[in-house]
Amino acid sequence: MFDSGFGGLTVARALIDLLPNEHLVYFGDTGRYPYGSKPQGDVAKYALEIADFLVAESDIKMLVVACNTAAAAAFEELSERLNIPVVGVIEPGVRSLAEVTATGRVGVIGTVGTIDSGAYQHTLATIPNTEHVELTALACPGFVEFVERGETSGRQVEVLAKRLLAPMVDAAVDALLLGCTHYPFLARTIGNVMGSDVVLVSSADETAFEITRQLDELSLHRGTGGGAEHRFISSGDIAWFADLGRRLLGPELARAEAHEWV
Ligand code: DGL
Q: Which of 200, 202, 220 is CA-nearest to residue 211?
């Protein structure tokens, strides 16, 4: 599994809870993040490099693109290039949005890169029987930085959320997809702004369900042997990754390994 940095840890958490027997290697590209403000071509190149690294280094049986920006930029290319199943964070979230809406008015929030790519609209168009679903997509620059500082609640993030989410409140959606791996950490603040009638859909949980479904379908589960290994690799400052990562993920992130891009 990989992400630009810490956000994918929400997917890792959901996966470890749902599938405690599976080994997990998580790569956080903190040496090159954030991805959300970078050109799509650069993000796609990074994604392919990380995929090649994980395949070569750890002989993985499935790749999870736990970053919405990377999935928007490179999911198709990764699926074509690798001969193992690839799961992204976009499609599971969109499917769930279409299922939970009663009014047909739904929203997605993400980084500038993800929203500008149009990936959510394209994916929705490929899902059958969703013609009635009207999707409002909104970029929320600034949210990621708050999470990276470990500031997931408080007055400042509330003020920013009120300002950024105002167009989404006006769009009167009844379901909102957190289309960035960092946003589940801000779910309470986002929920307060949107109101209790709006269902928040987390791509992290939906992706963990999709991983389980595909492992079932392909008979790829590891079984109940116990002793699952959880490894965390980062291309940036290891002490920082381990410290903030442990606060965000939990005790499984006991230590982080370094990887340097050459
Ligand atoms: N992980 C990215 C995403 O899900 C957000 C952080 C970044 O901009 O790199 O879109």
A: 220
